[in-house]
Amino acid sequence: MKQQVPYTLLTVAFMPARSLNLCSTSKLETGMTELETRLKHITGSERNQYCHQCGKCSSGCPSAPFFEFRPRKIVAMVQLGMIDELLESEVIWHCAQCLLCKERCPRDAGPADVIQALQNLAYILDVHVPEGYPSLIDSILKNGVVQTPRKVRVWRELPTKDILRREFEFHDRLSLGLPQLKKPKDMQKLGSALQEVLKWKKG
Amino acid sequence: MEKRMKFALYPGCTVESEQYAHEISAREVFPKLGIQLVDVEGFNCCGYPLKSVSLPAWSYLAARNLALAEKEGLEVLPLCNGCNLSFREVSHYLEENPELKKHVKKLLSNEALPFNGNVKSWHILQVLHDVVGIDKIRSVVSSPLKGLKLATHYGCHALRPGNFEIVDDSEDPRYLEELIAALGATVEDYPERLDCCGQGLAITTGKTALTISGAKLKAIQERGFDAVVTVCPFCMKMLDSKQNAIRVTTQTDVSLPVLYYTQLLGLAMGISAEKLGLNLNLSPVGEIMKKLGGN
To answer: Fewer CB within 10 Å, N or C, chain A?
Structure first.
């Protein structure tokens, strides 16, 4: 992972917008930047503008203790049009998707939705998407599912705290008595449909 | 409430490919509660993993599964919080995005699949609590789980977002507590009860995910609980299956039994541990049996 947003940039996001001259008439004159327009198209709403920076989102966030990840800062930066900086920083990928911020937001600004839209935008623009995602897509294109059945360990005796004594053998669905999976019949149709929908509004 | 006793079983990728204990125990207990599980041909990934990178791709994948169930005239019972959230949300999302809905419907029609967006997805807790009912569950208990003090872990996506088709109160859920109490075990609240398991971070930063899981397990352990009960295979993967990784990576001393509610229910119904897939759990579930005086 690359370095996160320089702290100075995050501090900027907390200054009253007017003092930075970012809410000035110049912005109203030029309208939205291309990135802002695309983000708005993905979110499909302007609810993020309702945020009044109360901080309930960041206070409950499970990622906040570990990273420079604060839903409140991210929403503030989006309001200020700092989308480039967010995509470049990779900070948006530290969301655990627990949805607590969305649940507790008193203004229905949906920080989790804003973050998800930023991630979608990062994928469309191909900026710093974590490696795991392309391989997830490949797997679904190939098999229709994220992963195909694996063999698992089955303990001869139920495990206790004395972990050294565990003996096991490997089993699969069949040997466990589970029915065989009936996967999609026409993977080609599913695959081409998925490829088509992945390009939706990409251009 | 209208009684629905037949559901399309949607195990989801994680359950059907490695978290077999959930599927084994669900297939074991549901028929005994009068719930028929139907296997539908052709299900694909629920789409949830792709939500971060492509909302349109997510909506197509989720809608395709609902369309398959719609074709069979069934409602869906997923064995995963993430899958259920996907199915709960997708109809609303497509309703708000009519242009995309049209596109998705067209893609589905290539496979002769109908999609009207009115197939309900039932969370496993809703089926147990609202369809089967606490009284029925109490009536099938033959070996009450006396003496066990249990902690609940719902998993974020069972509860949030709570703005539509809510499963239970998102800030103070009681379904799982009531379902466990019906089995004769003791269930207590604890401050970390609704904390996330950290799984959502596993794809980008595994160590943080393990730290978050470890912190929750340690808190539960220190509060004197005998075990954790969950309904989500992703949470199970973190809390049950990663205890060794947590010990090694984060130097957190955790060793606590974790099991699915359907496994716990089966034990209370007098079903053997093996038939409930308990020998697939990676956490020390043998401790529960010792406590209950079995095995």
So the answer is: C
Q: Which of A97, A146, A157 sits opposite B200 (nearest CB)?
A: A97
Report d(CA A189, CA B108) in Å as an integer.
9
The whole-angstrom separation of Cα A185 and Cα A189 is 9
Is the CB of A185 less than 8 angstroms away from the CB of B41? yes
Q: Do A194 and B104 count as a contact with CB atoms less than 8 A apart?
A: no
Distance from CA of A18 to the nearest CA of B (A): 33
pLDDT at A162: 81
- Give me the pLDDT at residue A10, please: 53
pLDDT given at position A55: 96
When pLDDT is cut at 50, 70 and 90, the band that residue A30 belongs to is: low
Note whether B13 contacts A145, CB cutoff 8 Å.
yes
Those residues with Cβ within 8 angstroms of residue A188's Cβ, 6 or more apart along the chain or in another chain? none
Distance from CA of B61 to the nearest CA of A (A): 8
Average pLDDT for residues A79-94, to the nearest whole number? 93
**Is residue B64 within a helix (H) or strand (E), and if so which, with residue range?**
helix B55-71
B104 vs A185: CB contact, 8 Å cut-off?
no
Domains observed in chain B:
6-109 (1.20.1050.140), 133-292 (3.40.50.11810)
CA atoms within 13 A on the CB side of B94: 25
A155 and B279 within 8 Å at the Cβ level: the answer is yes
Say yes or no: A185 contacts chain B, CB-CB below 8 A.
Answer: yes
pLDDT at B294: 58
Distance from C-alpha of B10 to C-alpha of A190, rounded to nearest angstrom: 18
Domains of chain A plus CATH, in order, are: 7-125 (1.10.1060.10), 132-198 (no CATH)
Give me the pLDDT at residue A9, please. 52
Under an 8 A CB cutoff, do B280 and A153 touch?
Answer: yes
Residue B4's pLDDT is 75
Best mutation target, A107, A194, A195, A202, to test chain B (most B CBs within 10 A)? A194
Cis peptide leading into residue B78 (ω within 30°): no
CA distance B173 to B125: 11
pLDDT average, residue stretch B277-292: 96
Comparing alpha-carbon positions, the chain A residue that sits nearest to B203 is A132
Q: Tell whether ipTM is more than 0.85.
A: yes
- Whether the CB of B99 is below 8 Å from some CB of chain A: the reply is no
Contact yes or no for B252/B246 (Cβ under 8 A): yes
Of A102, A183, A200, nearest to B160 by CB-CB distance is A102
State the pLDDT confidence band at A20, using cuts at 50, 70 and 90: very low
